[in-house]
Amino acid sequence: MDDERVHPYWKAGDRAGYIEEAQKVLHLASGQPVIKPVASRWFNLNTILMQTVDDLWIHREKQEIWWTYSIAAEPEVQLIDDPNPHSGSARIFVYYMSSPV
Fold this sequence. Notes:
- The longest helix has 16 residues, at 36-51.
- The protein has 3 helices and 5 strands.
- It is an alpha+beta fold.
- The protein has a 3-stranded antiparallel sheet with strand order 1-5-4, with no helix packed on it. Strands 2-3 form a two-stranded antiparallel sheet.
- Helix content is 32%, strand content 26%.
- The protein has one domain.
């Protein structure tokens, strides 16, 4: 997922623009502004997620473990209201991958 305000920079491959805009408009869960290393990580993560194929991804949240394999397919893209905005209301792009099973 990616905030609507910075997503065009990622789509254009503009890393510097993404980082600069993220530092201007986005905030961390703590309410603090996004620092450059965090904005850079977010840009990188979007890129990695879109380029990965046949990788195992594991995520733990509280007492739950989620896992999935990445696939070589075009994702479904939705622009939705952020369910947990940190700096006022925002919209985010969410990418969904459907398994070809």
